[in-house]
Amino acid sequence: MKIGTGASPGIAFGKALVIKNEELVIEKKSVENIEEEKNRFEKAIEESKAQLLNIKEKAAKELDEGKSAIFDAHIMILEDPELISSTLNKIESKGVNAEYAFKEIIEQFIAIFEAMDNEYMRERASDLRDVSGRVFRNLMGIKVIDLSVLDEEVILVADDLTPSEAVTMDKEKVLGFLTNIGGRTSHTAIMARTLEIPAVVGLKDITEVLKEGDIVAFNGETGEVIINPSEEEINHYKELKNKYDKEKKELQNLKGQESITLDGITVELVGNIGTPNDIEGLIKNDAEGVGLYRTEFIYMDRDSLPTEDEQFESYKKVLQAMNPKPVVIRTLDIGGDKEVSYLNIDKEMNPFLGYRAIRLCLDKVEIFKVQLRALLRASIYGNLKIMFPMISSLEELREAKKILQEVKRDLDNERVEYASNIEVGMMIEVPSAAIISDILAKEVDFFSIGTNDLIQYTTAVDRMNQKIRHLYNPFNPAVIRLIKMVIDNGHKEGIWVGMCGEMAGDKRMIPILLGLGLDEFSMSPISILPARKLIRSLNSKEMKKLADEILKMNTAEEIEKFIENYFK
């Protein structure tokens, strides 16, 4: 048995699909049979085209046109006569292997595109890299795994899963995730909870331990993983699954019920989403609104910026589906570990402390204005609240609000309608913002505490670093004191305070947050009904006493043990 971090609840068992992103090593070799080598190259091209056509067909059914169009561009590269003939000529004239010949030619093409003045043409270099990787793998007999086209039900096993992989994968065929790295706040964990797929992360070497086709069973809550389980163990996991499914079914009785404490204090339980497709999960789990719509996913897994109309349609879809419930939409938060190749952002030593989120938007104002225009236009279709991420100073907040006012004036001049009652808020995820939250509260309609980053920045711990992950702890007294400060400062100025970090859906943290006075809890859809069940069993006055006791404690370990014993 292996133990990792339970990241998304549920019981899963099935066949492992191990994804290894091994570096391709291409060596120069002399070949004797030139025609055979040329045929091998042409066959690899045809295989690559067939794979892309298959993906495109699936993407056309399940994704929007912008995403499926990417595959058209990739197929066109494989049909470029100059690329093909140059590689074949290189094989023939130099007597070299197809891999080396293709590498030489593709690198020339990439260099040409990267040197162009036209930004659109420069972006094609990343398409060439993507397509060439597929061709190399087919030439070298390395299995090309397309997560968007899976033939059977599998448990995905990887070092980590990128947000774009999670967005495009065949969700009907994925029974669960197992990864080497990550914690409860990693993107893989967050995505798994949003999709209601069981997951265990932080398993260190699971991609080495598991082999293709191994059977694996795991518990997404406890983090227990069993490789090639016995019949007795499979039966045990089947019983666990039946029990989990039964409990999940019983939670359905809480639909339509208020999220209210025993002594009559009502809070809002809302959901975090990444795409309009996630709304289905919110409705299924009776969310009272959207507390965080991560708009960066509109910008990812494509090769150019989304247009104003594309964004408008996405925001409109979410607002209409949830109307009249509130929908908090966060403006673009690209950077850190969320890369967008076509923006050509320079590599940074420490991207989490770098050019990201509101910093990028205040620099690339035109990108920011396009998003704000789309948001304002969509506002008439529901109850929109706009939220700025990564604010670290009053100057940044005022600049973002100023740009929003400029966009409103532009729309007024164009006689374009938008809602007049849009609340504007900000995330508190940087310690400097928490410390001056008394000042910031005077200038916004709400705060939403982003604890995933707040913990990271407060404790100076990279949440993806396995060696120091134990220091990334939501029970750290400094984190809890900052949260208390933000809630109190918000309430003094008469604004509501929510939380959209993963702490908001943590059953151990909910009683503390309730006692600290949090108004809104935003979490993965799968956590909403269990959280409602818990809140309806608590007395807010007792939880305030509990929170007061915790604020006097000195260590995370002391707080954790106190909570564990309190609720035993």
Automatic annotation (TrEMBL):
Its EC number is 2.7.3.9. Residues 24-65, 230-257, 390-417 form a coiled coil. Transmembrane segments: none annotated. One of its GO terms (cellular component) is cytoplasm. InterPro entries: PEP-util_enz_mobile_dom (IPR008279), PEP-utilizing_PTS_enzyme (IPR050499), PEP_util_AS (IPR018274), PEP_util_C (IPR000121), Phosphohistidine_dom_sf (IPR036637), PTS_EI (IPR024692), PTS_EI-like (IPR006318), PTS_EIN (IPR008731). It is found in: Cytoplasm. It catalyses: L-histidyl-[protein] + phosphoenolpyruvate = N(pros)-phospho-L-histidyl-[protein] + pyruvate. Residues 151-223 form the PEP-utilising enzyme mobile domain. Residues 249-539 form the PEP-utilising enzyme C-terminal domain. It holds the Pfam family PEP-utilizers. One of its GO terms (biological process) is phosphoenolpyruvate-dependent sugar phosphotransferase system. The keyword Metal-binding applies. Residues 4-124 form the Phosphotransferase system enzyme I N-terminal domain. The active site is at H187 (tele-phosphohistidine intermediate), C500 (proton donor). Mg(2+) binds at E429, D453. GO terms for molecular function: kinase activity; metal ion binding; phosphoenolpyruvate-protein phosphotransferase activity. Phosphoenolpyruvate binds at R294, R330, N452, D453, R463. The keyword Plastid does not apply. Belongs to the PEP-utilizing enzyme family. PANTHER family: PHOSPHOENOLPYRUVATE-PROTEIN PHOSPHOTRANSFERASE. General (non sugar-specific) component of the phosphoenolpyruvate-dependent sugar phosphotransferase system (sugar PTS). This major carbohydrate active-transport system catalyzes the phosphorylation of incoming sugar substrates concomitantly with their translocation across the cell membrane. Enzyme I transfers the phosphoryl group from phosphoenolpyruvate (PEP) to the phosphoryl carrier protein (HPr). This is Phosphoenolpyruvate-protein phosphotransferase. It comes from Caloranaerobacter azorensis. The gene is ptsP.
